[in-house]
Amino acid sequence: MPEISVLIVDDDPLVRSALAHxxxxxxxxxxxxxxxxxxxxxxxxxxxxxxxxxxxxxxPEMNGIEATAAIIExxxxxxxxxxxxxDGSDTVLPMLSAGASGYLLKDSSADSILAGVREVHSGxxxxxxxxxxxxxxHVRSSGPTGSAAELEPLTEREAEVLDRLSQGMxxxxxxxxxxxxxxxxxAHLGRIMSKWHVRDRVQILVAAAHAGLVEFR
Length: 217
Description:
The structure is a single chain. By secondary structure, this protein is of the alpha/beta class. Helix content is 50%, strand content 12%. The protein has 10 helices and 5 strands; from the N terminus they run E-H-E-H-E-H-E-H-E-H-H-H-H-H-H. The protein has helices at residues 13-24, 38-45, 64-74, 92-98, 110-122, 129-142, 156-165, 171-178, 182-196, 201-210; strands at 4-9, 29-35, 52-55, 79-84, 102-105.
């Protein structure tokens, strides 16, 4: 029985068909719906609750950024994976700040697309160093600036995990760097999420960037 239900949102029917084909290759993933834009996606979600929404960025009527913000506000448990042809700061990064849990390029391999869906569903998605850097710069330059005092302080080890997360490291890479188990890294990340009331790795970075806690060297 499928473990992960997916809604695909894209204004190009060929792209929707291709993405549906890619992710449906896994028997544990089921595509439960398709939509042409953000308005259709929200209408679908009124009566269905997929685990993951694969969301294009540039669409008519309601784009992916607007739809992502609206969906996360109403249904915060739904994970959104941005899927776009562009990876610049004017497309993917506003999506991440709006609440998407990860991103993919449309020319990614089928295996990468499926892995992205699984990672976003599990909350363990990672960002490349370049995208992590762009995300923090985007949040610091265009988002409302908060204060570190507004966030519950981290322990020394949690701060070390955050620093490596901001470098775009995966859980496994963080574990190797700190000479601890991957499970320990996940536990630290879980405590940071709990302290800061965020739901995934991307939003940890967003919160830290708003508060000026992470910089890129």
